[in-house]
Amino acid sequence: MEEIAVGALSDMADGDYKILAVEAVEVGVFRLGDRVVAYENTCPHAGGPVCQGKIFNRVEELLTPEKKSLGLRFSNRRHVVCPWHGYEFDIETGRHPGDPAVRLKPVKVDVRDGQIFIKLAS
Length: 122
Hints:
The protein has no helices and 9 strands. It has strands at 2-8, 17-22, 25-32, 35-40, 54-63, 69-81, 88-90, 106-112, 115-120. The chain is globular. 20% of the residues are buried.
């Protein structure tokens, strides 16, 4: 696997992301507090540039035990929405909320000595 330096963790604020082009692969790198995740910038639905989509907190519906709606709220979970067709994915897991089998392709990330590195398969 090829390891690529992305930059200093301190250069990315919590919630920031960047898109990198490494040869023929684009990668989205997301900072989630002290954690960093990365995915190939290709939506599994139709190949759109998913990591360049809008990011928002997931909308949840609150239900009573009888399944009556108490309204909507924003959760702490953040999602990215593919700009082509609106497919959304949990940034922490890369999974689609309605079908966990549909997911973004993860890229290995390592943070060492305050620096972010990604590893791409050769």
